[in-house]
Amino acid sequence: MNLLQNYLSGRWQAGTGQGTPLLDPVLGTELARVSSAGLDLADGFTFARETGGNALRAMTYRERAGLLAAIGKVLQANRDAYYEIATANSGTTKKDSGVDIDGAIFTIGQYARWGEALGDVRALSDGAPARMSKEPAFLSQHVLVPTRGVALFINAFNFPAWGLWEKAAPALLSGVPVIVKPATATAWLTQRMVADVVEAGVLPAGAISVVCGSSQGLMDALKPFDVVSFTGSAETAGVIRSHKAVAQLSVRANIEADSLNSALLLPDAAPGTPAFDLLVAEVAREMTVKSGQKCTAIRRVLVTAAHYDAVAQAISAKLAKVTVGNPRNDTVRMGALVSREQLDNVKAGLAELRGQTDVLHDGASAPLVDADPAIAACIGPVLLGTRSPATADRVHAVEVFGPVATLMPYDGLEQAYDFIRRGEGSLVASVYSADAAQIAETALALADSHGRVHAISPEVAAVQTGHGNVMPMSLHGGPGRAGGGEELGGLRALGFYHRRSAIQAETAAIDAVTAASTPFAR
Ligand code: NAP
Asked: 99, 154, 342, 487: which to mutate for ligand 1, most atoms within 8 A of CB?
């Protein structure tokens, strides 16, 4: 039995019991097991908090940026092994594995570069000194210093690589040790990356730990200066939010939950225009990249009633070309969902949406390539459509975490915004048009309910980064249903791992404080 070890208290430790098996979602074979049973979590958290935290806080931002650069090199050197693990455990094609693995390496490299520029200081100044009285002798200066605790990451199954490093990069750069608990289904890649970084000896003891298996007891181990960053379902998010650590000890929590992201074709983008083609290509891509298992994937597509049929036909034509099955076969464009359980969830979600929609393209019953439908967690893309989005309430409420999207018509932009807002807060909306002024107006109208508005016009067709691609320079998170969290957004991400304090003192002391810190230029 290949029981993956946990790294806690600065040493590798096996959980007790038989553990939970990790499966190949295409072949159904067992790959490894995980168990966190019997671990002394309190000791592990104390070790990270004290040994890891002290070592990291003793370093400057520039030195910690050096740690990130070193991690990036370790990950780069082991990249081929990560691709193999992703194929086996996530059932992803090479391209889709790259979204996770290379996305992780890119993000960590970006934070290494940004961190380098923060220089050899251990604090950040926030804003300018403010006079506290008529006399300029007594001033207030806000500063940011790393929190004296650990950062616990409870992650989702769909990004075992990026999900770790997009959080760990700003945490470690801030001087905060990391404890990651990957989702069980795909824990292997996270565990292996941590193992490689530990083996390379590039981080101080206690700076990184990994717990694979049950989440039992993790939240109980948190103390007031710790932070927890969660990515996963709205249901588990509710458990985290109401846990004593968050509700009573003021442990800061960042939540990234589910989201019904939209793509909006503006009225100027008629069939035959580049903006129309850009929407069609983006929707088809978003539905199929990682088999639609991206929290940012397009779930709702809004077009004017006049273009509904043309859009349905164009997207369906693209989806019809998508071959689904075993990612080891080079002809396969879309691999598996992460598990049979997820396949069941997708089918249940589809059944619920089908009650209120028409099926415009049905890839669900298409034959699989090199995969047994009785075993593989594979399903082809399904485009649904409703001409009554005002009454079809499920399409604004049910997130099918797979290759599924729903097309709907709108009558006037205000109505389109209303439909989009019925998602009750989303990670991203994308807008397609050649009219820059209208793009600006629409982006501002949607900004209050989205962490990101991605506008695609013909001018940016070749350089745009993709609706669902989370780039480290831009905010990731969304209000309301999306969890209310904020990640990335350049150096803004450091805010979560720092404490802000107002230092009130005489001018000479304030001068000394600002001399010992770098302005927090977000
Ligand atoms: P989930 O069941 O909530 O699991 C997420 C993580 O929470 C896993 O590591 C899970 O561990 C852990 N967990 C489960 N119960 C827990 C508890 N009582 N206390 C503490 N941790 C607990 O979510 P999922 O169904 O696997 O993930 C899919 C969802 O994630 C989708 O709805 C998707 O929208 C969302 N997602 C959001 C984002 C984003 O950035 N907003 C990104 C990706 C995914 P186990 O795996 O061991 O159960």
From this structure: 154
CATH architecture observed for domain 6-257+486-519: 3-Layer(aba) Sandwich (3.40)
What atom of ligand 1 comes closest to residue 342's alpha carbon? 25
- Angle at which helix 79-90 crosses helix 61-77, to 10 degrees, equals 70
Q: Residues 182-223: pLDDT tens digits?
A: 999 999 999 999 999 999 999 999 999 999 999 999 999 999
% of the chain at pLDDT higher than 90: 98
Q: Per residue in 133-157, is it b (16+ CB within 10 Å) or e — as a string?
A: eeeeeebebbbbbbbbbbbbbbbbb
Q: 452 by DSSP, 3-state: which?
A: strand
Protein residues with CB under 6 Å of any ligand 1 atom: 154-158, 181, 183-184, 214-215, 219, 231-233, 236, 239, 256-259, 295, 399, 401, 427, 483
Domain boundaries along the sequence of the chain: 6-257+486-519, 261-473
User: Hey, how many other C-beta atoms are within 10 angstroms of the C-beta on 355?
Assistant: 9
> Which CATH number applies to 261-473: 2.40.30.160, 2.60.34.10, 3.60.40.10, 3.40.309.10?
3.40.309.10
Residue 378 annotated in active site: no
- C-alpha to C-alpha distance for 334 and 289, rounded to whole angstroms: 7
- Assess whether 256 carries a catalytic annotation: yes
HSE-up of 110 (CA within 13 Å, CB side)? 22
Residue 522 has what pLDDT? 64
